[in-house]
């Protein structure tokens, strides 16, 4: 398709001033901006066409060459008149002088340069350690911490301004939050942008700074923070608490608190993921004759289990759903309590006990068969392999 005359594209005559050209381009760019015309190829092409026309007509040297030679003139600059047009990224990065806070176009987020929103500051994160007992891990717990951190200034309510004096547009960036630098390169005029050093990207400056916070909107203070730690957490996990970290300057976004979990050793249970292991030490008569035993659980209650006659050391019993909840299980996925049985052998015996055991020793029942000895050997070999 043949190119249209650039003056026709922008709807201005050949005597239009630079300000008229800028206003015309802004109007067309708003109309055909991709944010307003999602998925429209026609709107995208008109958007690019207007950008190319503006690139030439707003520059006095390029405009003079275009007026003299038309599209076939010896044009340098960005791509030339017949250089294939603009990409969307090119357009968004090249025209900060049109869409920065001077033309009412800042509502569009698509412009990576001048159309960007003024910076919103974010507070830094805080890191805490919490040491939990196994019982607290099992049930979940709410902990209170007194935290020294940046808090919103109560005198100016975070604005940084004294007595409601408010703010004014930054004279350096004119409210855009960025400054644009134009340099000449082998490929024509190039523009780069950086955060405005005067307003730090906010696009505005404070007229009269608060005497308490010196214009930052934050001061040091203490705050008691309640942190809910879910059941099932484990050593090394991090619980993130949004919005409870350091306050940000000028009522920006507060940081988070990251809570690092540590576990206290437990004298009753050994933790294995969501399972708990309990070592049950049986007396020899109960192991041989059978009976019952009471097993403690992590919630403080006790469970009775049946001991079968002839129970061997190393035997394990599994009590379903008596372990810990999975941290992501929302109460539905719970580990087990695994009972590992050992047999207690007394170190000292009375004369009668010794005599009774010597009589038992003579019985084949107390010597163990070959299968039992083989089973014990296999357990030890697997243990040390």
Describe what this molecule looks like in 3D.
- The chain is of the alpha+beta class and 385 residues long.
- The chain is built from ten helices and 15 strands.
- It has helices at residues 6-10, 18-32, 41-57, 60-69, 88-94, 96-99, 134-139, 284-289, 351-361, 370-384; strands at residues 126-132, 141-152, 167-169, 178-185, 188-195, 204-206, 218-229, 238-241, 257-263, 270-272, 275-283, 291-296, 302-307, 316-319, 337-344.
- The strands form six sheets. The chain has a four-stranded mixed sheet. Strands 1-9-8 form a three-stranded mixed sheet.
- The longest helix has 17 residues, at 41-57.
- The chain is elongated, with a radius of gyration of 39 Å.
What's the Cα radius of gyration? 39 Å
Strand order of the largest sheet: 10-11-15-14
- Biggest pleated-sheet summary: 4 strands, mixed
Helical segment count = 10
Q: Based on DSSP secondary structure assignment, what is the total number of beta strands?
A: 15
Short description, anyone?
The chain is an alpha+beta fold and 385 residues long. It has helices at 6-10, 18-32, 41-57, 60-69, 88-94, 96-99, 134-139, 284-289, 351-361, 370-384, and strands spanning 126-132, 141-152, 167-169, 178-185, 188-195, 204-206, 218-229, 238-241, 257-263, 270-272, 275-283, 291-296, 302-307, 316-319, 337-344. Helix 2 (18-32) packs antiparallel against helix 3 (41-57).
Please tag this protein with its features.
four-stranded mixed β-sheet, 10 helices, elongated, three-stranded mixed β-sheet, 385 residues, alpha+beta, 15 strands
